[in-house]
Amino acid sequence: MSLPLRWHDDVPADLRRVRERFGAEAFEQARQVITSLPGDPLLGDWLTDHPGTGDLSTCRKVKSGPDEIAPDGTNLGPALRLVYRLLPSNTDVQQVEVLCIAPRRDLIAYAVAAARLQ
Organism's domain of life (predicted)? Predict the structure, then answer.
């Protein structure tokens, strides 16, 4: 079963920024994740209500992009987070809504998603 897909109005700009900052391969990974969500809406991991970002407990995240390397050489994992939610609810899924794709560093992706939920 494939669900309808929609996205926040700013997601196309998010994707342009991914291409500019992280390159064509990261852009293509993000695009592939987005196109796979209608057929696999439970792909991402659940988010929570976090004091640093707000309540994203109705949302899920998918990690993508190139690995981010800390100044000390530690691999922090994929640099991007795609945040989406299932509508109208987690238990009655009829649609997938992509909220954002943005860097994970400094909780940027989560702050953007929380702001777009407002």
Answer: Bacteria
For residue 92, the domain's CATH number is 3.30.2310.20
**Pick from 93, 100, 92, 95: nearest CA to 117:** 100
Q: Could you give the CA distance from residue 77 to residue 73 in angstroms, rounded to a whole number?
A: 12
For the entire predicted model, the pTM comes to 0.94
Residue 30 lies in domain = 5-117
Q: Which helix (H) or strand (E) holds 104?
A: none
Q: What is the pLDDT of residues 79-112, one digit of tens each?
A: 999 999 999 988 888 999 999 999 999 999 999 9
Bridge-partner residues for 118, per DSSP? none
